[in-house]
User: What shape does this take?
Amino acid sequence: MDINKIRNFSIIAHIDHGKSTLADRLLEITNTVSKREMKAQFLDDMDLERERGITIKSHAIRMEYKFSDDEVYILNLIDTPGHVDFSYEVSRSLAACEGVLLVVDATQGVEAQTLSTLYQAMDNNLQIIPVINKIDLPNAQIVLVMEQLTELLGCNSNEIVLVSAKTGEGIKELLEEIIIQIPPPEGKPQEPLQALIFDSIFDNYRGAIPYIRVINGVIKPKTRIFMFANEKTFEVDEVGYLGLKKDPQEELIAGEVGYVVANIKNVRETRVGDTITETFNKASSPLPGYRPAKPMVFSGLYPVNNDEYNLLKDALDKLKLNDSSLLYEPESSKALGFGFRCGFLGLLHMEIIQERLFREHKIEIITTVPNVEYLVYTHDGERLSIDNPSNLLQENLIERIEEPIISAKIITPSEFIGNIMKLAADRRGIHKDMEYMDKSRVNLNFDFPLVETIFDFYDKLKTISKGYASLDYEFLEYRPAELEKLDILLNGEAVDALSMIVHREKAYYWGKKLVQKLRKIIPRQLYEVIIQAAIGSRVIARESIKPLRKNVVAKCYGGDITRKRKLLEKQKEGKKRMKRVGKVDIPQEAFLAILTVEDDG
Amino acid sequence: MEQLYLYIHIPFCKSKCPYCNFYSVEELSLMDLYLETLIEEIRLYSEFIDFHKLQSIYLGGGTPSLLLPEHLKEIFTLFPVKDNMEITIETNPESLSYEKLKFYKEAGINRLSVGIQSILDKNLITLGRNHRTEEIYKILDLIDRRDFSNMSLDFIYNIPGQTMEDLEKEFDFIRTYNPKHISFYGLLVEEKTAFFNLYKEEKEDDLYGNMYLKISKELKELRYEHYEISNFCKEGYTCRHNQSYWNFSEYLGLGPSAASYINGERFKNPDSITDYINNIKNKKLSITEPEKRDERDILLERIFLGLRTNSGLNLSELSVKYNFNIPDVMTKISEYIPADLWYFRDNSIFLTAEGFLSSNTIILEINNIISDKNLTDFTFKAGYNRTTI
Ligand SMILES: Nc1nc2c(ncn2[C@@H]2O[C@H](COP(=O)(O)OP(=O)(O)OP(=O)(O)O)[C@@H](O)[C@H]2O)c(=O)[nH]1
Ligand code: SF4
Ligand SMILES: [Mg+2]
Assistant: This one.
C-alpha cells in the first residue's frame, strides 16, 4: 500500500446542508455503491436516522478512485452529523483525517454550525475545501454565499467548488480537488504501532470492534495489542477496511483507516479516543486522544420494569461503545427504584438514546425531568456538584448555588433581531455583542443560563425567525443564581423523580404549570390524588384528581369469558407501563411533563 | 361434569342497532338454512355430549323472537326438555306477537326476556330501535304473567342525551310493572359500531357512575337484589343460565359467535354465519382452537368471575391453591382499595355497587396482590392449562 495514495477526509456542515447526500454522489462516482443499491443518504443506516432524516452517527467508508494520472487512490470518507447535540461525533472524526469538505447550502449560506465545525477543523490543522451545495435550487444565492465564504476563509472565490449533490453537477471536480488538495497521511509504518480508536461497534458474535486510524506502525492478525487506557492485551483476529461491508485485509499500515477484531468481549475494555499499540513493541506514549465530551443535560434513566436494571446496564455499556459522549452512573430513586443518572449533549441526544434503548435493546425506560449540573457551596466551605435535583441540600446549609452559563451564537437575518432579543430576555439571556456578517445577516452573541435553553428554546427560536436563525453554543462558566428546589407531592409525599431546580422568579410559574399538566396526564385512580407543588414546606400550587368511578365491563357477552379476560389483560399491560409511587400509578409521560408544559399556552 | 347449560345464538336482526356489537346479520332469508345447520351442529355434538345433563336452554341473539313457531319446534324436539329446566328466550317488542307467546308457552319456554331498553321514545330514537313506548305497553299487555312469571326486562342507561329525570320515569314504570328480573346495561361506545364514529370522544363526566349508583339504590329500595354488575332480581329469580358462566359450570354455545366451556377448555364459534354454515355442511364443527390459558390467566378469570356477582371471591379456596396467608392479602387489599368499594364476609370478598363501577381496576389490583411473589408461595407455570377447580 502506497501511503501517498491515501486521502482521509470528513464532510462537515450545518445541519441539513447536504453532507449525506453529497456522500451518496461520491459513493456513486467511485462505484463503491452500485446504482442499483443506491438509496438517498445511503450512509444513514440506522432506522432512527432514516425516519428522522438526520445523521446521528458519523459513518466511515472507504472508496477507490482511478485519477487522471491513472493511479488508484484510496479515499476514506467520514460523513458527520450536523446537529449540535452530535458535535462530539464531528470532533472525533476530524482526528482521523487530513482534510475536510466544508459544505454550505447555497440557499441558506453560512450558519452557526458552519462556523463551529470550521473552527474545529482549523484547530486540527486540516486542509479545508469549501463547497457550495444545492446550486440546482432556483433560490440558490451562489454569489452571496461565495462572498460569505471568501470573507470567512480568506480564500479566492475560484477555490470554492460548486456542486449539486442532487444532480451530481460538480462532483467529479470535487473528487479531483480532494485528491489534489488534501495531503496524504504522514505516518511511519516502521515505527511502533499507534492507532487511534475513533469509533466502535458491538457485534454479538465477535464482541467490540474498534474502528481505527493507524497513525504509525502496522497492525495485522496475531499482533498482540495493548490498550493504553486500561492496559489490557488482546490478540488480533482480523483487520480490514470499512468498505460497504467489512473487508478483511492482511494488514493495516500507518495512514490507513479500518477495523480490528480482537475478541474483545467486555465492552468496557475498549474506549473511543484510546490508543492501541503493540504489547511487545510499545509506543512510548498514547496519542493525544479526545477531550472528553461535556454533557450539558442530565436525567435519570429507569427501567419501567424494575427487573430490567441489569439489562439496562448492559445496554448502556453497549451504547456507550457506539456513542462515547454518553455518560452514566448508577443512582436510585425512592419513586423509581434503581437506575442511572445520565449525561447527554442535549435533549435530542437524550431522546435518541431513549429510542435506541427501546429499539436496539427492547428496554422501556422512564426518563426523569432533564436538568443541568449545579455547583453548590455550603456554609462549611464545601463545593458539591449536583446533577440530580433531589440531592440538593436543605436551604439553610447552602451558601450559594452556581449554574452553568453557555455562550451562544445566533446567526439570523437582521429583521428578526427584535424577536430574538425578546426571547433572550425571557430566558435570562445577557446580550454580549452583535456583528454584521454582511448587509442582511448578523451574528448575535449571548450568555444564557444553560437550563433556560434546554426546554424548547431552539424550537421557539426557529418559530420567531421563520426558520432562519441558527444556534450554536458552548459551555462558558458557572455563575451564582437565585435557585430553589421545586418539589412535586402526590398525596402528600414528595416524588423525588419529579423535583426540579428552578429560578426563584419562575418557581410559581413552573409549579402551577406542572401541577396542571400532571392533573391531565395522571389517570383517575381508585383513590383521590392530590397534586401539590412546594418550595420547602410552602405549597405554591395544588390540583386534585377525582377518584375513578367508571371502569367496568357491563355486558356479559354471553359466555365469552376470554373476551373479557383479554380486555382486562390489555388494561393490565397499560398499568405495567406505569410506575407506582405510594398508591399512585404514574404514566411515563408524567416524568417529562415539563417538556410539554408550554404546549397548552 | 354432571350439568350442562346450553346457549343458542340466533344471529338475525331486522336492522342493526347503531350501538350494538353482538354478532348478527340482516339477511333474514338465511334463516331456514341456518336452522338446518344448527340442527346438524347439534347432531355433531351429540356424538360426545350428553344432552341429558341439560339444566337450561338460552336462546339469545340477535333476535330470537324472529324465529317462527315451526323453527322452535324443530329445535326443541332435539332435546330432552324437562320441567325443572330454565328455558329462556330473548325477545324484541317489535317481533313479538300473541301467537308467538302462546307457542313459547307450549314449547316449554318458562323465562321471557324482553328488550324494551327504555320507556321513553326519545331514548329509543337515539338508540335507533324500531319500537316505541306504545308497542312496549301493547306487548306487555299481551304477556300473561301467569305463563311467564319469570320475566326479565332489559334496559339501557347512559344513552346520549338521557338525563337523571328520564331515569326516574323508568323507575316509575318498574314500580308499576314489577318484573321479577331486570338487566340494566350501561351503554359503552364500542368499536365497530355506528355509535363509535358518532360518540367516540368519551365525555369525562360522572353521569355514567351517577346513573349506575342511582339505579342500584333505587332498585334495592324496590326489593331487587343487585346480584351481578348489570343484573337485578327479586328473591329466587336469578338467571340460572347466566350463573353458569360465572361459576365455572360447563356450557355449550351453538351458532356463530357462541362461546363454550367444556371439559376445562374455552372455545367459540367464529363470528361468521357463512363460515359456520360451510363448515358444518362439511360435517366439521366450526370452532376455534381451545384458548391456551396458563395459570395466570386462570387466576385472573377466577377473580373477575367471582367479583362479578354477589357470590363473591372466595379467598379460602384461593389461598389453598395459591398458598397465601389470607390476613396478609387482606392487609394489602385494605391498603390499596378504598373501603367503600368492597366488603369482606365469610372469607369472601364482595364488591359494593361503587366497587362494581370500578371493577376492572379492582380486579387487576387484587390480581396483582395475589400474584405478588412476596405474598404468594406459588410458582406460576407458563403454558397451557385446563381449569381445575
Ligand atoms: N435540491 C437539492 N437538495 C439537496 C441537495 N443536497 C441535499 N439536498 C436535500 O437536503 C436535505 C438534507 O440533506 P442531507 O444530505 O440529509 O443533509 P445532511 O447535511 O446530511 O443533514 P444532517 O446529517 O442531519 O446534518 C435532503 O432533503 C436532501 O435531499 C442538493 O444539491 N440539491
Ligand atoms: S341490540 Fe339486539 S336487536 Fe339490536 S342489533 Fe343488537 S342484537 Fe340485534
Ligand atoms: Mg447527514
